[in-house]
Amino acid sequence: MNLVHGEGYETKVRAAELLREAGFTALANELQFGSLASVEKDEPIFVLCARDRLAPTAIKTWIEAARISNVPDHKLESAHSLIEAMDNWTGDRHYPD
Length: 97
Description:
54% helix
């Protein structure tokens, strides 16, 4: 998926470039190619990071709800890949503050 062309498209492209230049590759890719590519200007979002010990469990719960709702398999596979990437991340983990 590429950035959704529409209002804010150029801003998202530039933001992704700046993030990538600063070393935030995963965040830049999510903004440019992931679910954040289609986020609207005032749309509320909820972000989970690998440092959050509860993130994989929350994503697993989403996967189960998504499966029941017939979400396409590629979305479920993407979520499973994210859990694996979070499990392999070597940074410090903690419970949400």
